[in-house]
Amino acid sequence: MLNLDTPLNDEELHVLDRFLLNRFEDDTYAEDKDEGVLGISELDGMFTAIVSGPELAELSVWLPAVWGDFEPEWENPEDATAIMTLMIRHMNGIAATLQDENEEFEPLFMESMEDGKTYIMVDEWCEGYLRGMDLAADLWEEAGAEMEALTAPILAFTSASDWEVDKQDPANSDELMEAITPNVRQIHDWWLEQRQ
């Protein structure tokens, strides 16, 4: 039996990414519906917030946030088990890295190629992190000014700030982007200390 602490390989990350994106038909989407998590980067952000936040959310709490209003219809129990196993392994992998190799943790940002140049896209990951924070919103808010400062670069790339980063000049945007990873590591350590 596969150990639930085994990190996902690239192929498994791709499988999970495709599943999240393709779990409902385009014509079933409606503007007033919560589409849930639509890709591996967003899931990575959400799971990072959960495992490094004020309390570890139970599966019964975080899974509905993954699906939103579009819980998948499984063809058989084996398919459901396979996807759930991938998600739990990914969450456990993030938790283990932040706990044991904090300085090695890297968010799973997506990349885009345009005119031969590679661009890092952090918005999806940050939206996922916000979704994870929302599961314990009161506790995050009660953390005070230090936590507000640590989460500011993340939230600047989300709807929570009305995408504040779009109003910044490119140099400030790059600075905010570069602050995300070290701040996430600090956020984990800050909450770990509070929980202990």
Word description of this protein:
The chain contains eight helices and two strands, in the order H-H-H-H-E-E-H-H-H-H. The protein has helices at 10-22, 40-51, 59-67, 77-100, 123-134, 137-142, 145-155, 170-195; strands at 110-114, 117-121. The longest helix is centred in the last third of the chain and has 26 residues, at 170-195. Helix 2 (40-51) crosses helix 4 and helix 7 (145-155) crosses helix 8. It has one domain: Four Helix Bundle (Hemerythrin (Met), subunit A) (Up-down Bundle). The protein has a two-stranded antiparallel ribbon with strand order 1-2. The chain is mainly α and 196 residues long.
Rough outline: globular
Strand content: 5-15%
Question: What sequence of helices (H) and strands (E) makes up the elements?
Answer: HHHHEEHHHH
Into how many domains do the coordinates divide?
1
Number of helices: 8
Sheet/helix structural class? mainly alpha
The CATH topology assignment is Four Helix Bundle (Hemerythrin (Met), subunit A)
